[in-house]
Amino acid sequence: MGEGEVTNMTSTPDNPWGIRFMAMFHMSNDSHLFRTAAQLAAMEMRDSQKWLPLYEAKMVHQFDHRWATYADKGTDSRDVTLEEKNRPDYAPLPRYWVAEQEVESRLRAKGWSRRWLMGWRDICRSTDERTVIAGVVPRVGCGDTFLLMFPSNIEATAMACLLADQNSLAHDYASRQKIGGTHLKYHVKQQLATLTPKHYAPDDIAFITPRVLELVYTAHDMRPFAEDLGYQGPPFGWDVERRAMLRAELDAHYARLYGLSRDELRYILDPAEVMGPDYPSETFRVLKNKEMKLYGEYRTARLVLAAWDKGDKMNQEVTP
Asked: Among 67, 193, 249, 269, which has the minimal tally of Cβ within 10 Å of its Cβ?
């Protein structure tokens, strides 16, 4: 499938989510449409149209639309600080801006009316801690390194489950076995193991949705996403420890939805823990090494297995 080409709009056995794909703006071919902040400032007195930020993949991470920002001059990017993420009014600065009418014309062509967008990073390297990096962003312009997906004929709560699935360890592990290069294009995305809408019982949706909501809705610009999920309150604070716990609970839940056992989940987290220290295979080595350096432990493994065990206990308590 070529970039910009769409899949079947309706739900089919091959496309149960009714997903259409799009690369909104090509960073090279569409560069004549982009303006820097300095150019916009010079045009201010003679241009009445509205300009939207152009998001690039580097600005987005899992459950985080404020991962990176450009400096004031728009030449170099940097990570968004924790102090900035704790400000619900903070939005990252893009390198470029694009006319709102250009964004809207492309979204109308896809029939997408929601006030937010969902997509994933095209780049996926072995040096990254995760392979599939999906996120939700405001209704803005997006470069072709952040590829967009448009599910159809489903509720926003189901879309929240789709997002959580893509960011789960179980989905990521399966994806790592499939992806051989450094790009996650449409033809590969279509082949990755993904749970269908029918996999989610009402109890699953009730468990997943509030966690996705809290992880995503950390700033005012994501209010439309929260409202589509039925939430009218203020953004959630950026609590690092709580976010780690919420993600671990989602990872454990998705491991169950994918039909894994506890030992299979342990293997996904770290094969050496199951097979022995001399076992040659690795899964999330970069993630593990990063956490060992930051926390002195493989925190994700501890939290996910604790969440699994908590789920086991709860299931035993409700089973007659």
From this structure: 193
Neighbours of 152 (CB within 10 A): 17
Strands 51-55, 77-79: pairing is unpaired
Mean pLDDT over residues 95-107, rounded?
Answer: 97
Report pTM.
Answer: 0.92
Phi and psi for 147 in degrees, rounded to 5? -85, 140
Q: Is the pLDDT of residue 199 over 60?
A: yes
Per DSSP (E only), the strands in the chain are: 20-22, 34-35, 51-55, 68-70, 77-79, 97-99, 116-121, 134-138, 141-142, 146-150
CB under 8 Å to 156, separation ≥6 — which residues? 114, 225, 228, 229
Average pLDDT over residues 248-277: 96
19 confidence band (pLDDT: 50, 70, 90): very high
* Dihedral sign (CA 192, 212, 109, 94): negative
Residue 95 lies in a domain: yes
Look at residue 306 and tell me if it is in a domain.
no
- In CATH, what number is assigned to the domain containing residue 152? 3.90.220
Does 263 reside within a domain? no
Give the range of the structural domain holding residue 92, as residue numbers without chain letter.
Answer: 20-192
Residue 307 counted as domain residue:
no
23-34 pLDDT tens trace: 999 999 999 999
